[in-house]
Design a protein that fits this description.
2 copies of one chain form a homodimer. Chain A is of the alpha+beta class. The first copy, chain A, is 52% helix and 22% strand. The structure holds a DNA duplex.
Chain lengths: 202, 202
DNA sequence: CGTCTATTTGAATGTACTCAAAAGCGGTGG
DNA sequence: CCACCGCTTTTGAGTACATTCAAATAGACG
């Protein structure tokens, strides 16, 4: 494909734009950063991090869609995060402490990602201290989102949560099988199906 | 009270010890930091931040116990966090953007806190950039905790969540009325009561 | 001692789950 | 091009977990 090269080269700098929304990187710093990220194309369905192994990468999504999920004792999956263009994902606890991960991460569609290995993360934070600020703000925002999600679970029924999900993540319903959306919402696929029918009938 | 002075002066440095667990403050930096924090004693029941008002402070708890909670349309409260010695609390979203808060924060017991006003927060992050690292790590840890809590909601029944809560926050059950523990667990006080009876009978 | 709030109890109800089976859908091979 | 396979989604019946509402009991505080 002719467009592939353009596409990829454009997207590799996307992470720099994302970072520059909160801090200002010098060109040399941006180049250095790009040199430590590992760009990678993931085919649909690829498992990039696996439960039980220490998390190798902090992952930035250039394009496509990934999900990070937890598998319980009964073998069922529970999605904790979808990540599309401009999002970071991974098991932070496993990544920072290098202990076995409780999450897996998988590409739901063909995706382009930038991988930041643990040693590189430590290194870039040493060499470009203002990145601490970027990640501080990023984690702070994510924390707010997580708190909202906990509150939604308290205060809203599954139907209400589904409606809000659709409004917030409009594009996701195309990529993502319904069973994973159910999982993200904390309900069974059967029940989501019943909710959808009920909403259709209106 | 004779003990008050000793008590307060000892505890005011607690925040410095907490920060020094992740970074190393110079004595001058520690002094400067302490000069911008506002120490304050809160009587039991005091409401320090209120829904609807922009959050004024990022709060560090020296001693005692606070809770941050959300009040829904029907008027019932939902606890999103308890904070005891060594914890930070507040509505991060409201604090950083200075928009009306959706949370309130209240002292559940007589407490000593260190308040960091928004302008001071911005200022100390400018003047002591390595604090960015401290907050980055703090928010990162908090994020991991929040993710675990979401997963627990997915995978565990109310009874299991209550048992885990008791194990994790052993001391809290003394301070905190059961109805707030129920709220934190995302269940009604009536149902918590039934769970407790069932556990007693074993 | 009385008042106010927190906790407990019970009955009826609702939300969401489990299990089993059918229907839909996309890809693959004959 | 059709038949088959595997996986996702839908449907339905029965069930379990948790809620609501109302009322009784227990505890804290002035």
């Amino acid at each position: 494909m002719e467009t592939a090269y353009f596409y990829t080269s454009m997207n590799n700098t996307s992470v720099i734009h994302t970072i520059n929304r909160y801090i200002t990187l010098e060109p040399a710093e941006a180049d250095y950063l790009l040199s430590v990220f590992m760009p990678r194309a993931l085919p649909q369905g690829e498992l990039i991090e696996k439960t039980g192994d220490p998390t190798r990468y902090f992952i930035y999504v250039n394009s496509g869609c990934l999900m990070t999920y937890f598998t319980d004792q009964t073998g069922s999956d529970h999605v904790i995060q979808f990540a599309t263009t401009g999002w970071w994902t991974g098991d932070l606890h496993s990544f920072t402490r290098q202990v076995p991960s409780i999450y897996s991460t998988r590409a739901l569609a063909e995706s382009h990602v930038m991988l930041l290995p643990k040693v590189s993360m430590d290194q870039v934070l040493e060499e470009i201290p203002k990145l601490e600020r970027f990640f501080r703000i990023t984690f702070q925002n994510s924390l707010v989102t997580h708190q909202h999600r906990i509150i939604q679970h308290y205060t809203a029924t599954a139907e209400e949560r589904y409606i809000m999900f659709r409004e917030k993540y409009t594009s996701l319903e195309q990529y993502v099988p319904l069973k994973y959306i159910a999982s993200y919402l904390g309900i069974t696929p059967e029940f989501l199906s019943k909710i959808r029918r009920k909403l259709m009938e209106k």
